[in-house]
Amino acid sequence: MLTERMELAKRVLDVSTESAFEVLAQAKQLERQGKSVIHFEIGEPDWDTPDHIKEAAIKALREGFTHYTPSAGIPELRQAIAEKLLQERDVHLDYENQILITPGAKPNLLYAIFSLANPGDRVLIPDPSFPSYWALTKLAGAVAVPLTLTQERDFSIDPEQVRKEAKTGAKLLILSFPSNPCGSVLSERDVKDIAEIAQKYNLWVLSDEIYQKFVYEGQHHRSIFNQAGMTDRTVVVDSFSKTYAMTGWRLGFALGPSALIEKMTRLQIHLASCPNSFVQKAALQALMGPQDFFKDMLHEYDLRRKAIVDGLNSIKGFHCSMPKGAFYAFPNTLSTGLSSKELSERLLNEALVATLDGASFGTGGDGFLRLSYATKLAKIKEGLQRMKEFMQEKL
Ligand code: PLP
User: Fold this and answer.
1) Which range has the worst mean pLDDT, 56-65, 87-96, 125-134, 190-199?
2) Quick one: 104 and 153 in the same domain?
3) Is the Cβ atom of 208 under 6 angstroms away from ligand 1?
4) Mean predicted confidence (pLDDT) in 223-235
5) Do 62 and 132 share a structural domain?
6) Which of 8, 50, 70, 148 has the greatest number of beta carbons closer than 10 A?
7) How far does the centroid of ligand 1 lie from the alpha carbon of residue 208, in Å?
8) 388 Cα–ligand 1 center, Å
């Protein structure tokens, strides 16, 4: 028990959490009591990491590749990332100075926000969006300014809202598309407009693109990094977690201007020394090895996406738009008459279906639920059935 004289630092007293991990813990607790829960809460592929990636890690371990690596990551992995980006997205990078490998994507969010935002600086954040942006901005002493995403605008950022906030002064704009929790993407027009605004009002952009490959309907991800004049003011955050079903391995990366990457690397030196050595060898294999795995996974996600949206729209009080990216459905549940917090709690405890309250992604998510469809189709159908029955019988 802490006494009054043993106070913790103010900065950590009200650090917010990530609800996905909290709800997962509650669901696991129910499972320990012998109940069977359908998991729509946690955003991670239900695929196992492909064998050729695992083998590369095992080989690296057997060969004794178990020591510190350069802080920014092994050069061959940075080079492979640069080559892939050139091939797939026509992005030219100096791999020695513009790429930083990190333990998961998340450290990059901290490194970038801490390197760019001074205390009191305004940081523009899509609302709703990934909880860590809000928590880290606050920890940096900066001011989070929400950019409300609406269902009417398909949950994409309105460039005019960015302009309005940028005019009054802002340092950093966070983009996070395809979006967690909304599954929305940015249109070509919007990306162009936002790039112009960023240059006009001197904004830095942190573009979290960890779902960049999860785009449906034959579309491609559009990165602000590719817009003219943006490479000097954009830091892109990406990860092996979702694309290669490697969430537990903890490996991500960032690309950006060398002056910023240098400072982010300094932060990494103090936080982690370097990314995990043998996981970097596995990631190299992930990039260089066969890519069919991803195509199969995306095809399966697409089937699930349609099934979950159809199913949600058949439930009383739910209204769900078709998401164009990531693997999340974000139904509007306002007409159920319950707050999204209460609905998500009751669905978990009474229907044994774990979902997330949209408000845990920002106040703009109030009145919505987030459901991850990175789970088997049979489970999706079962979960939808339970939700439907709950709505018919209990409300
Ligand atoms: N950014 C977004 C938008 C995410 O949804 C997640 C994880 O769910 C992360 C970052 C963190 O990724 P990683 O597991 O690679 O740290």
Assistant:
1) 87-96
2) yes
3) yes
4) 96
5) yes
6) 50
7) 8
8) 30
